[in-house]
Amino acid sequence: MDATLATIAQKIDDHQRLSPEDGLALLRSRDVWTITELADRVRRRLHGDRVYYNINQHMNYSNICALSCKFCAFHRKKDQAGAYEFDIQEIVTRAKKSLAAGATEMHIVGGLHPYLPFSYYTDMLSAIRDAAPQIHLKAFTAVEIVHLARISKRPRDIRAVLTDLKNAGLGSLPGGGAEVFDDRVHDEVFKGKIRSDQWLDVHRIAHEIGLMSNATILYGHIESLEDRIHHFCMLREAQDEAIANNYAGRFQTVIPLPFIPDDSELQHMYGPTGLDDLKMLAVSRLMLDNFPHVKSFWIMQTLELSQIALQCGVDDIDGTVVWYDITKVGGSDTHQEITVTDLHRAIREAGYQPIERDTLYRPVIRDGASWHVDENSSVDQLVCV
Ligand code: V47
Questions:
Q1: For ligand 1, is residue 174 a contact (CB within 6 Å)?
Q2: Mean pLDDT of the 317-324 span
Q3: How many structural domains is the chain composed of?
Q4: Ligand 1 within 6 A of CB of 257
Q5: Pair type for strands 212-219 and 335-337
Q6: Span from the CA of 257 to the centroid of ligand 1 (angstroms)
Q7: Mapped to the 3 state alphabet, what secondary structure does 366-378 carry?
Q8: For a pocket test of ligand 1, which of 327, 329, 336 has the largest count of ligand atoms closer than 8 A to its C-beta?
Q9: Which three-class secondary structure state does DSSP give residue 385?
Q10: In this model, does residue 379 exceed pLDDT 80?
């Protein structure tokens, strides 16, 4: 082990917070075994041999988007071939299917649709709530929330918008749309999208009103290693603030998303390698000492890599998924599903115990086709490593 990593290892054993310089040294190091072993040490301290997964369905209600982010192959203009939007009936049909399949969560995100009214979004939530009351609705990235604030003519009242959505059935916010918290990268690759301050603001307000949320980082395109570490530090600070102010909501999970170039405007780029993926997951675990979970999204990392990632700091895999349109690795279809049996097999073979959890990380207890959670049984403890 080189001297810098030895110092970092000592800090980890002493439960000390890592500095941005430590994070950078980890990302620059080629000693992937030491880095991933350190992340596994922390992950075992927090979660023992447990690996969480959920039975969920993703739903991308429309790919029509006012933005044209260069990394994104999902967006279409209204009259462009392949553009679609689901009506409420289609959404309810999907919710009923999710319910029948035993899903505990629907993860709902879409493009910034230029014409749909605000009532479409509240109707969507309340219609699903009526059709499938047990399903948790994790919906709308911070980018969509700011868009909804604009179309409901309350551009500065994010709290009112989130409150309306919460009253209609919103259960928590997903972590998408964060990309990389850096103005240079923003202006080159996702100009027009909200910047870091607005993304963080939306999540802060969500936390204040008692909504849990997640955070992502999209890496492996034009960002620098320094940008990645800066992003982690901003998330860590935001979570410190939520904890210090005792907000009822918090960040639960970080989901590092590897850039997938296929069919995007940046398709000439390579995207990250497998080693970069493992290091990013491990460094997320080590830097984000106040985030309870690090999740691998097998749709992007692949199940094969996600299985190895379980030994590199990851404690959570999203999920059975079923349908996903935003990224399709290697020409896969929108039907992207994994069975619980396959998830269990991957987790057990990696040496861990699979635990089904709901969106709020409460273990799910199943009895035939029905399921329940113990309301007070969250596995989360906001422990500093
Ligand atoms: O916001 C878009 C990203 C995100 C590409 O909160 C791309 O539990 C890679 O946020 N290559 C959506 N990534 C996915 C997401 C997510 C996934 C799983 C769980 C959770 C959670 C959140 O996907 C977008 C964007 O950042 N994205 N295009 C691409 N070409």
A1: yes
A2: 87
A3: 1
A4: yes
A5: unpaired
A6: 6
A7: EECCEEEECCCCC
A8: 327
A9: coil
A10: no
- Rounded distance between C-alpha atoms, residue 37 and residue 41, angstroms: 6
71 lines ligand 1 (CB under 6 A): yes
> Which atom, in ligand 1's list, is nearest to the CA of 264?
30
Bridge partner list, 205? none
Cβ-based neighbour number of residue 343 at 10 Å: 23
- Whether residue 255 has its Cβ less than 6 Å from ligand 1: yes
Task: Tell me what the mean pLDDT of segment 249-253 comes to.
Answer: 98
Residues 6+ apart with CB under 8 A from 194: 142, 143, 146, 177, 202
Residue 376 lies in a domain: no
pLDDT (tens digit per residue) in 212-242: 999 999 999 999 999 999 999 999 999 999 9
CATH number at residue 110: 3.20.20.70
> Is residue 109 in some structural domain?
yes
Task: Determine the Cα angle at 258 with ends 176 and 113, to 5°.
Answer: 35
More confident position, 172 or 322: 172
Order the strands of the 251-258 sheet from edge to edge: 56-60, 105-109, 136-139, 172-173, 212-219, 251-258, 293-297, 316-318, 50-53, 353-356
| Domain encompassing residue 43 | 3-358
Residue 364 lies in a domain: no
Give residue 326 CA to ligand 1 midpoint distance, Å. 7
CB count within 10 Å of CB 357 equals: 26
> 177: Cβ below 6 Å to ligand 1?
yes
Distance 3 CA to ligand 1 centre (A): 36
| Closest atom of ligand 1 relative to the 215 alpha carbon | 6
Residue 327 lies in a domain: yes
Residue 380 pLDDT class (50, 70, 90 cuts): low
Which amino acid, 76? R
Average pLDDT of every residue of the chain: 95
* Token code pair at residue 62: 């429309």
Task: Please tell me the distance between residue 30's alpha carbon and the centre of ligand 1 in angstroms.
Answer: 27
pLDDT of residue 385: 38
Atom of ligand 1 nearest to the CA of 216: 10
Which of 202, 218, 302 to mutate for ligand 1's pocket (most ligand atoms within 8 Å of CB)?
A: 218
